[in-house]
Specification:
Radius of gyration: 15 Å
Structural class: alpha+beta
Distance between the termini: 32 Å
CATH class: Alpha Beta
Number of strands: 8
Oligomer: single chain
Order of helices and strands: EHEEEHEEEHHE
Largest sheet: 6 strands, antiparallel
Strand content: 25-35%
Number of helices: 4
């Protein structure tokens, strides 16, 4: 089900992986996002390494993508979940380690509160692994208060990465 909106909307997607070749999975996800119908990858953050936050397993590789998309928010969520499945994502329990995790963080100025989708993502301001990469592509969306709130969460820039 692909529902298109009339005008493209700017959306921000958080990417993460901590199983297999996590770095490569995130890099491939950037390419896959750019190939979604009616969607263009506008910007991508640098890659970061973070310890699991309210999750288990090895460290994560995290990033954020800025998209212009004509997909509706529910259709974009469906496309993101399809990409996760294609990358081998399994959901044996809440916050299980994952080959790829794609979260719709912001969808234009929309506020959506449905059983399937909440936008803005309800915990995006509580996670360093979202805020730091988001500040790479949309610095105005991350306040000093946001950064202070997550200052105790371990996260490092992966220096071998170049956008």
């Amino acid at each position: 089900m692909q529902t298109l909106v009339r005008e493209p909307v700017t959306a921000w997607v958080a990417l993460g992986a901590n199983l297999g070749d996590a770095r490569q999975a995130v890099l491939q996800a950037f390419e896959a996002l750019d190939k979604l119908p009616g969607t263009r990858l506008i910007a991508r953050s640098r890659l970061y390494r973070s310890a699991p936050h309210q999750a288990q397993g090895p460290d994560f590789v995290n990033a954020v993508a800025q998209l212009d998309t004509s997909l509706s928010a529910p259709a974009l969520l469906e496309a993101l979940q399809a990409l996760e499945s294609e990358a081998g994502r399994e959901r044996p329990y809440v916050n299980a380690p994952r080959t790829l995790d794609l979260d719709l963080i912001l969808y234009g100025q929309s506020r959506i509160d449905s059983p399937r989708l909440q936008v803005p993502h309800p915990r995006w301001r509580e996670r360093a692994f979202v805020l730091l990469p988001l500040s790479d592509v949309c610095p105005a969306s991350v306040s000093p208060e946001d950064r202070a709130r997550v200052a105790d969460q371990p996260i490092d820039l992966l220096f071998e990465d170049s956008p």
